[in-house]
Amino acid sequence: KSLNKNNEKKLKKTKEKIYSSSSSSSSSIYYTNMSIGNNMKKSDSGFSETATTLSSMQQSESLLEQILSFEKIYYENLKQYIIKYSRPLRRYLNPDDIVDLFQNIEKISAISDSIVRQCEKLFDTENASNIPISLIYQSWSGVMIDSYNAYLSRSVQAHTTLKQCQNKIAYFLQIPMEYISREITDFILLPIRHICLLNDLFQSEIIANSLVINGVDRKIIEGRKRNQNID
Fold first, then answer.
1. Alpha-carbon torsion 83, 34, 107, 6, what sign?
2. Which among 34, 61, 211, 215 is placed 20 to 30 Å from 27, CA to CA?
3. Which domains does the chain have, with CATH numbers?
4. Is the pLDDT of residue 216 over 50?
């Protein structure tokens, strides 16, 4: 399970907010133009309702290539935001405000960096084109679930704290408040966008694999019927 039951309602509400954003920042490019997203059928909200089969997803790139690109762009965006906002603001805001705003973002960034490195290592193996998602994420599933659940549980407080601190942040960083509000909101939402897209990818793989399995089962059944008719 990618998210626990206590956070599922928050996730559904957050999805609507995520995709109503009209920001032109790098994070918006991340979740609208990433290769995985473009290879999956999407509903109007930006989330996939249905999924293509594995074979169609792999026409231009292997699944591992898509995931590597997906995770690398995510990590680079996280790193840029951390360098631009969360680390410099430690000098100006009190520790409680920093925790409320950015929570465990450094830990999430470290997890993402490790996943990118793992994908790069797997990419150099002989069977890179047939690497299953489970092999990529299995060793990180526990710490990812804990980290993202902790992050999601405090996301509402993060937005409240941003409203309270945005004037100070704009003053300290000498950046217009409107820009601060938009960019830090994108920063706060970025891990949630990522886990939503990742959840969609997992669901698409479950659907695709079940279609393949069902197709094999049908062929077996049809073969048995033909054999029975011959007998």
1. positive
2. 61
3. 5-230 (1.20.900.10)
4. no
